[in-house]
Each structure stands twice: as C-alpha cells, then as structure tokens.
Amino acid sequence: MSTPSGRNIGNILVIDLTREKIVKREASPETVKQYLGGRGFNSKALFDMIPGRIDPLSPENVLALASGTLAGTALPMTSRLHISTLSPLSGILGDGNAGGEFSAMLKFAGYEQIIVTGRAEKPKYVFIEDDEVEIRDAEELWGLTTGETVDWLRDEHGDEVSVAGIGPAGENLVRFATTMVDKYHSGARGSGAVWGSKNLKAIAVIGTKGIEPADPERFYKMAKEDIDYFNRNDFVRRIYSVIGTHYGLIQWYPSWKYFQVPLSAEELPIGLRPQDLAEYEVGRTQCFSCPLACKDVYYLPSTGEYGTASEFESIYALGSNNCITDTEEILRMEHMADEYGMDVMTLGDTIALARLLHERGILSDEDVKGVSLEWGDAEGQIQLIEMTAYRKGFGNKLAEGYRNFAKLYGEEALAYCYDVKGVNRGWYEVNFIKGIFTLSHATSTRGADHLRGRSWAYWENDKLMDIEVVRGMLEAGLPDYRKDPVGALIYGERACTLADSLGRCKGSINSWLQAVPLVWKYPVFKGTAMLLTAFTGMEFTEKDVIDATDRIYLTEMAFNVKQGIKKKHYDVKFPPEFAATERAKAQVRRHWELVDEYLERRGCDVETAYPKRETLEGLDIGYVADQIEGKEFPEWDGPVGEVA
C-alpha cells in the first residue's frame, strides 16, 4: 500500500499523564486508508485500548482528540475536532466534535491525533508548539471557567494559541461536562468529566508548519469549487448566514414542557422566535475555513457579557422544554453552560425531567431540598445550573445526567426517561418519517442522537437547499426513504461518519451538501474519493470511502458490545401513558422489525446485534471479531462507577 504523501497525515501524540511521558508515532498507511482520520482514528484507538466495563472516570479510560483527514485545508467547513472516550454519561462510546481553530492548529503543528492516558497527580495542561510538546503545571488554572482559562493561556502563550479544555463542571466530574474549544465550541457530552478525572485542564496548541496536499493543484481546484457553490447558494445566503440554527425554531417543532407538546411556528411563544433572539445579536462569527458564519454573537444587557452560538438545541432544552420564554435569561443560561463547560441538551432535559417527576409526586419536596422546580421559573433554573456545575445540594443529583439521575429515584422515574443507551433525545412515534427517527436513535453508536444519520436519511433540509442535488443522489443509487427507510438510514449514517472522519462540519442546518464535500457535483461519495486521493496521494475509490465508513461504524458497534450492549438496548421509549395503548404496542412491533432489517443489512447477528465475523473480515478487520466473537460481556446498565 502506498504511503500518504500529504503533509501531517497520521502523526499521533500519545500522552501518558501518570508517567508524564510523551511519545510521537505515525499511523500505518493501512490505518489511514481504513479509518481516514478524526472519528475513525479515535474509534479505532478506543476499541484497541479500552477493555470492557471499566469506570469511565478511572485512569484506565482513554481520551482521544483528532483532526479529520481534511481539517485545516482550503476545503470549506473543515474545522471540526473530534473528541472520543468511554462516556461517564452513558457507559458506551461517547464522542462528538467541536469547531473553532484547534483542529487546524493541531494539523499545522504536525499532528492529527492526541491520545491521553493515565491520570496526573496534580492539575496539568499540555502545551504544543510544533515539535515542542510539554506537560505543564495547571494549579493556577484549576477552578477557572472555560473563558478565563483561554484568556490565561493566551496571556501566557500569545493570542494565536488555540485551546481545548474544561470548566468547573469537568473538574467536578459532572457526567455531561463537555470539552470546550476556544471558549464557545462544545463537543462530546461527558468528555469533560474524563478530562477532570485525569487532572487535565487544557491542551493549548500553536502550529506554524502548514499543510500541503499531495496534489495541490487538483486539490485546491476542487476546494474552490466547493466554496463557490456555497457562496452562490441562495438558501445559504438567506438562512445559514443570517439566522443559523434559529431556523429550526420555526421548522423543527421545539418541544414544550418535557416533550409533551411539539410547537409549530404559529404556536411558538414570544421570546422563543428567531426575531426575539435577533434583538440580542451584535454580530456573527464562524469557525476556521467556514464561509457561512452560522453562529450569532449576542450581548446580555443585564450582566454586560457577550456570548456566541445560541443554537436551536440550547433554546429548546433550556427554554421551551422547561416552559421558559424569557429570551435574555435563556441566553444567559446558555452562556453559563459554556463557561462551566456543560452540554446544554442533557442539562436542560435533566432539569425538565426533574420538574415532571416533582409535578407527579415521584420527587418529593424533601428530595429537592427547597429548590424551585416550578415550570417556567427562570431564576430557579439559573440557580440549578450553578448548583449542578459545582455539585451542590440537589445539583449533585442533576450532575449525574439524565438516565443516571432517573435511576436514583427508581423504576417509576425511569418510566419517564426517554433515553437510548443512556442518552436523551426526546421521544417520537415509530411512524414519524417512516420510523427513521426512532430507528436512527436506536442504532446510533453514541446513544440517541440526531447527528448520526437521522436528518440525512430523509434529506430533511436538502429539499429546501437544492432539490436537484437530492434528485442526482437518487439517480446515483441513494435509497429513497419513502420506499426503503432502513437503506436510507444506513446511507445517512455513512454520510455522518464520513463528515466526522474528514473533519467536515455537518452543518448548523444539517444537510448532505455540508457534510459530504462536492456532493452537489459528484453524487454520492465520488467527490470525496477524488479529494482524498488528491490530498493524501493514496488512491481512493467511492467503494473505499463507503467501506471506510462501514468499518468505522462496525468498530464502534463492537466497542459497545464490549461495554455490554445487547440487542435489547436498541429499544424505543414512550411515555408510560402512551406505552400502554394498542397503538404504541403496534409501533413497538414495527420498530423491532426495522431493527432486525437494519442488523441484517449491516452484517450483524440479528439475535445478538454483534457484528458478524464474515462482515468484519470482509472489511479487513477480522481482529475486531477476535475480541468479541463467542464472548459474553456483563450487561450494560449505564456507566460503571458510583453515583451521587
């Protein structure tokens, strides 16, 4: 196999915090071809290095950060840093990615992946400046918010430094603490607690080496074509760059009062409309190499603070799902979550679940110890957010995160917990968009999630952005969700896996057009294969790209098998009142039919949900089968380790 000739491909930093030892090594050409980079590199590292059923907050856990293959290049929207670990929130694969400058800066410094192991005795941070890599004392940084941490490191190392790290929530092992990049970019719920468990506050990087494709002329020509497409797309100019994900408030039915009512645009209360949020906007910003500027910059008159990226998820989770409609208070909560380093979706949904359980008498006044859980109480929620970040009082229970929180109060509370594999994303009827919503949440390798394939399976936003692209993909063989929902979802999962491995943003308004480069010109993955060939100097075909995404996905499924995931965990959750109806029972039966078809077409055993040996060997990763075939792992019931 040829060796990649593009600069900075496959260089890895392995940092052992226990021994304060740093090793530099290279991924083999076979690994670059098989796993691409980003999420692919991380998922392979986790499968290879983490045994089954360990405490995610123990030194044995691994924290992996990787730029995608094409991150830091001239290709637009390639800013994503992928962060992966065994999640202390779910107890399975926990990953996600964040924008900002870090991913590009890491590539410019000469590295594609950082793997962190062990645990430091005292707080540390890692400083990288090209070939110089040091583990430094961070006791002065411990306790600072994410914004203060970035400011401190910029004072120390200069304004060009890019920072990934944690706030107080990560230090206090809040199970849904996140990794924050350059103050405002959040990724991988739960990963922040792993940083905290390792006494690692931040990684600061400066890179000056640049990146050079193997075939610069060919690569830059295609990259420019992609930029030009977005610059002339009318939907992008009118929506993406003007309101970003606030578009979802009038299109995606944000939930009201703990998923009890999906709000249409006409039902949206004053305070939650895009025009209400626009009153606080003072500018727009973007990540590295992005021409779209989808993120708002807002100003809070009551506190004098600036924040950015008030996205759809934060508005629904912290706002409407808790019946809070005060725009400025919601923005203030979103900014607090960023400063403390917490995932807004798990934070908001866990508080909403607590409100519901209290309303129904499952949580007593004694349980909540005087904290207000009245629907719509913004001031009380601000208090709860701070208590959660510092694990104070009732906040110590909320800090366990959605399903773990419900477990504290028994089966009656768990009945209202609509998680899949420990992760929250609301509930849907199985007939919604042909059952794709519930199936995609069940098959997501990081628990219920909308960014693992769901929106791509039914071209949710592409229909509005450029319908001709959808027609082109269908002609090229993309399954039509109206006739083949399972096939459509598998292709959606491939698109998301590919984007996460390239370092490409999947879009603030999720779409094929953003996730898959050049899909508007070369359906479906052909353009990506051409870009990878030009950048790496290794020959990629469209089949190579598809095989790589399937290899990554099945490696992740095998990782979860080692964590005790069985077929029963691909289930669907309904509110107990609905679950008892004949309509719901029929939908459950339909869900399992879809799951069986999915497992069969993914090359997995339909009885166990284990990836089959012949499937893995067909993808040249038979070693994965060696570790799971014929083995029984203790059944998953959330993360290992003590709860509050």
Decide which structural class fits the backbone.
alpha+beta
Largest sheet, strands/sense/barrel: 6 strands, mixed
Low-confidence stretches: none
Taking Cα atoms only, what radius of gyration do you get, to the nearest Å?
23 Å
From the spread of the alpha carbons, the general shape counts as: globular
Give me the side-by-side strand order of the main sheet.
Answer: 2-1-6-3-4-5
The count of helical stretches stands at: 29
**What amount of the residues lies in strands?**
5-15%
- The helical percent reads 40-55%
Mean pLDDT: 95
Distance N to C terminus: 51 Å
Count every beta strand, where a strand is a DSSP E run of 2 or more residues.
19
Polypeptide structure, described:
- The protein is an alpha+beta fold and 644 residues long.
- The chain has 29 helices and 19 strands.
- It has a 6-stranded mixed sheet, sandwiched between helices. Strands 8-7-12-9-10-11 form a 6-stranded mixed sheet, with helices on both faces.
- Strand 4 and strand 5 form a beta hairpin.
How do the strands and helices of this protein lay out in sequence?
Layout: E1 11-16, E2 21-26, H1 29-35, H2 38-49, E3 63-67, E4 81-86, E5 93-98, H3 102-109, E6 113-117, E7 124-129, E8 132-137, H4 146-157, E9 162-165, H5 168-171, E10 179-181, E11 185-187, H6 191-197, E12 200-206, H7 216-232, H8 234-240, E13 255-256, E14 261-262, H9 274-278, E15 281-285, E16 295-300, E17 305-308, H10 312-319, H11 327-340, H12 344-359, H13 365-368, H14 378-389, H15 395-398, H16 402-407, H17 411-414, E18 419-420, E19 423-424, H18 436-443, H19 454-457, H20 462-465, H21 467-475, H22 485-502, H23 512-515, H24 526-536, H25 542-562, H26 576-579, H27 582-602, H28 613-618, H29 622-628
Parallel strand pairs: 1-6, 7-12
Antiparallel strand pairs: 1-2, 3-4, 3-6, 4-5, 7-8, 9-10, 9-12, 10-11, 13-14, 15-16, 16-17, 18-19
Helix pairs in contact: 1-2, 2-22, 2-25, 7-24, 10-11, 10-12, 11-14, 18-27, 22-25, 25-29
